[in-house]
Protein: histidine kinase
Organism: Dokdonella koreensis DS-123
Amino acid sequence: MRLLSLEGKLGAALGLAAGLAAALTAALTGWLGTTVSGALAALAILLPLLLVLARALARPVIELIRALSGSVVAFRDGDFSFSIAERRRDEMGDLVAAHNRLGQVLREQRRGLIERELMLDTLVQNSPTAMVLVEPGGHVVHANLAARALLNHGRAMNGERFDAIVAEAPPQLALALAEHDDRLFAAEIDGEEETFHLSQRDFKLQGRPHRMVMLRRMTRELSRQEVATWKKVIRVISHEINNSLAPIRSLSHSGRELARRGDGARLETVFGTIEDRARHLEAFIQGYARFARLPQPQPQPVEWGPLLEALVAQYGFGLAAPPPAEPGWFDRTQIEQVLINLLKNAHEAGGPPEGIELKVARSGRELRIDVRDRGPGMSETVLANALLPFYSTKRSGTGLGLSLAREIAEAHGGRVQLANRAGGGLEVSLLLPQPA
């Protein structure tokens, strides 16, 4: 409860001083005999008293302002532990109470932030996904346990240059990181080939641009998906065979009855239908058998002009850059079929036809062929499973196009990479080793 405002206290002090001045002046005037002499004498006596009174009134206010100033500086520096134990019952007391309430709110918010940071750090550190935060200068700001184990033999990475750490990693990782986009790639880790999904994100932290690199091991997940996919394949094959065998069985019975009756005219239709169903079943089985019995590639020099002309006659595209002057070294029949499938997928992606590009480039002992489109790209789930045999998001798709491309590339000693493009679309990269 406020007893007297600061304004009231100052008014009372001034009123008291004025009353004392008037009384003292009247007394001294009667004694000295003149008004001027009495006023000067009263002023000489009252001035020191007024200074002492003013100082007594100002001291607690000044001390309180100093305390508030120090507390504000502490708040600015992130120390919210200060509070002021002042028991004034005026406007300054209200200010002190508001200051203490602000400190309490800030302390509670700080405690909540610390608890959330600890929870987030626990989640990040124990995530199976390798996470590395890189500042603008290229130094590692943060790396979780998975990143340390994968990239730095379990050692801490904070403060290290990220490019120096990547230089000691498998070269496939450095190539994938150089593209600055999401992609699926394979790399040899501890003598075994591992498949990774790479995500990179740029964002601002405290006003400065940073990059978050996330690497997720997909080998085990792909193995589980392969088992599920093979189960699906068995169901599809069983369904297709039963769809052909059931009418064949029925028609065989009908043919037997027609033969017993001597109805030869209708037998021709029965046998023709049986032949059609058997031919369909044979084509279906051979399509899957060709995938399982992919012949060994027979590499030879391949000139780019004739190959590109043959491809553009099938599906139109634009060249992103002139092809290399030297011929490529691969099995033309197999690689041509792969590129036809990739161009077909690009045309069916739903983007503009003029957005479809093909680029051929050679870097050292590796040839890279990129097929790009401006369709919707792939979700992370589809991107992670697209290279699996028989995996397809198309209603009538067989799921063999990209998996066949992977099989042919690996038979050549190369690999296939998938990546969503900046601005929309998909890039499928075929990487093939070349002779020196």
About this structure: The chain has four domains: 6-115, 127-217, 222-292, 300-433. The longest strand covers residues 192-205. Residues 300-433 form a domain with the Heat Shock Protein 90 fold (CATH 3.30.565.10). The two ends are 92 Å apart (CA to CA).
